[in-house]
Amino acid sequence: MALRSFGKDPETNGDHCPTVWLDEERREFVFQGWKASDALQAECRETGPIPDSEAVVRLPARMAQQIREALDAADGSAVR
User: Which of 7, 32, 48, 53 could make an SS bond with 19 (beta carbons 3.0 to 4.6 A apart)?
Assistant: First the structure.
């Protein structure tokens, strides 16, 4: 696996915080975020089940820049 980091939540201390990566080999995004509450998971399940192999996590909107950079890298438009 070749994970490329795009950054952590800019408003945290750099430890135990949401993070965005791109797995360049598998062409998949990897997110570390806050665990979803039972209430949020229930609301998400209104659109369909959440398989045991999947999880709902929360990322702050202030991480939009890191997510955009990962998206650009995934579609090949980012300059390394």
Answer: 32
